[in-house]
Specification:
The protein is of the alpha/beta class. The chain has 20 helices and 27 strands. The structure holds 6-O-phosphono-alpha-D-glucopyranose. The site of 6-O-phosphono-alpha-D-glucopyranose has 16 residues, from helix 10.
Length: 642
């Protein structure tokens, strides 16, 4: 949610910031802006004074702490726009900026509506300090009042604007000290980047709660809210932890904690292929990501199956395997699509293990009086690894002593850092705001974890082998569904003008119904309710008529006969039915107006196949309605506010 990109080096900064913002735009896209110090600006320029030398090996080339004379005469150049990065790019044409360091931001509004004034960077009264910020400052109202009483003039409705004014208040020639003092006053979560027009070539970054990554180039340094944005520039990254500060300039960088003590942090080398972002000829990222599922599903199980033992092996869980064997209860916490993956995870773990399993919405988890101890494992599922609610739930579970596990796609992010052990999806970046390939990957990985635990319990070698066999067939079965995409598109077009949909399923496909409905509403803005089919008679059936179609997920499993009864109840009320099924028998066909066939697999794996046509169905309807599929209104890819 909101994206930050910063650069400090010897190249022209504006094109780098724009390129970075484009790659971050999926995080938030209602306004954008950047702040730089233009070399052409009138002014005496800063005067450096040495200080802060250290002997850390990380600081080889550095280290001069820059102090400056109070006023060089320079001011920041801040360029902002409401709307997309494309508009910002147009706006900077003709400005002829000559600058080699700067900070930039793309916003998802929290405090203050989307507008140019509320866009970041936000500045102070002098025009010298500029700040970009992800997260929320919870005590901004009291800080704003205090600063206004001291004469500071505010222009925006944002919580962020208190930060530059606070820094201005504390600034007496040492930007680092001023930032440290200001941060001490802030409550909430933040990833911030700060520049000062008089402190040339210095960017100060601070992280608490919202992710910030430092990119290390050759005599040039970057910071960004995720590694996707840095991928075109460098593969050498440092993941900041909470309450850490990085100071970047052209001769190097150093990292400190907020007690002003220097830290040594490891540089991680990222696999460039994992971070390659392009549409590969598809019209939208979402469509590309749907079509990537044979590969992403394969990546979820590649190297993780031991076929001759009928078991899975997950290197990331090895360090905690003994604890895991003694766990009695598993609580899966997550949000959005990852929550629906967890909802299905409950059925998977209940089926394959002897664990007592519960699925919890991360945003509700911390309000509950749950008994969490060393016999409980909490499994956080998150594509981004930075969803604020999920992170908060994990922190709560940590306090109470539970074993913390994660399934995360984005390497090195907050949730991956805080958990005791975990499994990466290795699915590559997911850019479309509506999650697709990560959902199916999350289902595969949960099955692998359940199989691993289950094989220490009651699951036999034969059962384990059957599951492995079925998992390895999934990629080609998904290919089969994708090969049918034209037919699915034709069906979708028939349904594209309805205003409401009901999605129903039972057992393993109750979560499929929820996720299918979520896909449709996220990207097409059509009202769609996902419901467990058995609950339909307790309410939603009152909505059914000839203008309110139902998508019924009705595969061949223990619940099929009951599903058919529910579908008959819909037919009796003139409701149209589109069925997703692997059953060719008349009992499904005769009561369906349209049918999308999927190949058959084990019932616990069937949802991995059933969701694929529903993703395509939503996509084609949204496309037909001319919706902005990769950047649906009001949504953001990674939600770093609670
Ligand atoms: C946002 C995204 C969803 C995602 C959810 C949870 O709402 O738009 O696609 O499922 O966050 O995100 P996570 O990164 O934790 O899986």
């Amino acid at each position: 949610m909101c994206g930050i990109i910063c650069y400090c080096g010897h190249k022209q900064v504006v094109p780098i910031l724009i390129e970075g913002l484009k790659r971050l735009e999926y995080r938030g896209y209602d306004s954008a802006g950047f702040a730089v110090v233009d070399n052409k600006e009138a002014g005496a320029g800063p005067q450096s004074m040495n200080g802060g030398e250290t002997n850390s090996p990380q600081l080889k080339n550095l280290r001069k702490k820059t102090r400056i004379s109070p006023d060089s005469g320079k001011k920041n150049k801040i360029v902002k726009t409401q709307g997309r990065v494309g508009r910002l790019e147009k706006k900077k044409i003709g400005l002829e900026i000559d600058a080699t360091f700067g900070i930039a931001h793309t916003r998802w509004a929290t405090h203050g509506k989307p507008s140019e004034i509320n866009a970041h960077p936000q500045g102070d009264c002098s025009g010298k300090i500029a700040v970009v910020h992800n997260g929320i400052i919870e005590n901004y109202q009291e800080l704003k009042k205090e600063l206004q009483e001291k004469g500071h003039k505010f222009k925006s409705d944002t919580d962020t604007e208190v930060i530059p004014h606070l820094i201005e208040e504390y600034f007496d020639g040492d930007l680092e000290v001023a930032v440290l003092k200001a941060v001490e006053r802030l409550h909430g979560t933040f990833g911030i980047a700060v520049i000062h027009a008089d402190v040339e070539h210095q960017i100060i970054i601070v992280k608490r709660g919202s992710p910030i990554i430092i990119g290390v180039g050759k005599d040039e340094y970057y910071a960004a809210s995720d590694s996707n944005a840095l991928a075109p520039f460098t593969n050498r990254m440092i993941y900041l932890s909470d309450d850490e500060m990085a100071v970047l300039n052209t001769s190097g960088y150093y990292i400190k904690n907020l007690r002003n003590e220097l830290l040594e942090k490891q540089i991680e080398i990222l696999d460039a292929d994992e971070y390659r972002v392009d549409k590969k000829g598809f019209e939208h990222y979402m469509l590309k990501e749907i079509f990537e599922q044979p590969e992403s599903v394969k990546n979820a199980f590649r190297g993780r199956l031991i076929e001759n033992e009928g078991v899975s092996k997950l290197g990331g869980l090895e360090p905690v395997i003994d604890r895991l064997k003694n766990i009695k209860k598993l609580i899966i916490v997550s949000c959005g699509t990852s929550y629906y993956a967890g909802l299905l995870g409950r059925y998977i773990f209940e089926n394959l293990t002897e664990l007592d399993v519960e699925t919890a919405l991360a945003s509700e988890f911390r309000y509950r009086r749950l008994k969490l101890d060393e016999n409980v494992a909490v499994l956080a599922i998150s594509q981004s690894g930075e969803t604020a609610d999920t992170l908060a739930a994990v922190k709560e579970a940590k306090r109470k002593g539970a074993l913390l596990l994660g399934i995360v796609n984005s390497v090195g992010t907050g949730i991956a850092q805080i958990t005791d052990a975990g499994v990466y999806n290795h699915a590559g970046p997911e850019i479309g705001v509506a999650s697709t390939k990560i959902y199916t990957s999350q289902l595969v990985i949960q099955t692998l974890i359940a199989l691993m635990i289950g094989r220490y319990q009651h699951i036999s070698f034969i059962e384990g082998s059957e599951i492995i066999n079925a998992i390895t067939k999934l990629p080609e079965q998904i290919e089969e569904i994708l090969a049918n995409s034209k037919e699915i598109e034709e069906i979708a077009l028939k349904y594209s003008r309805y205003r409401d949909f009901l999605y129903i399923g039972r057992l393993y496909n109750y979560p499929t119904a929820m996720e299918g409905a979520l896909k449709l509403k996220e990207i097409s803005y059509i009202h769609a309710e996902g419901y467990p089919a058995g609950e339909m008679k307790h309410g939603p059936i009152s909505l059914i008529d000839e203008d309110f179609p139902t998508v019924a997920i009705a595969p061949d499993d223990l619940a099929l006969d009951k599903m058919i009864s529910n579908m008959q109840e819909i037919k009796a009320r003139n409701g149209k039915i589109l069925s997703i099924t692997n059953v060719t028998a008349h009992k499904v066909l005769d009561i369906s107006d349209d049918v999308i066939y999927v190949p058959g697999t084990l019932p616990i794996l069937q949802p991995i196949l059933n969701i694929v046509p529903l993703q395509l169905f939503a996509y084609y309807i949204a496309n037909e309605r001319g919706c902005d599929i990769d950047k649906p209104r009001n949504l953001a890819k990674s939600v770093t506010v609670e």
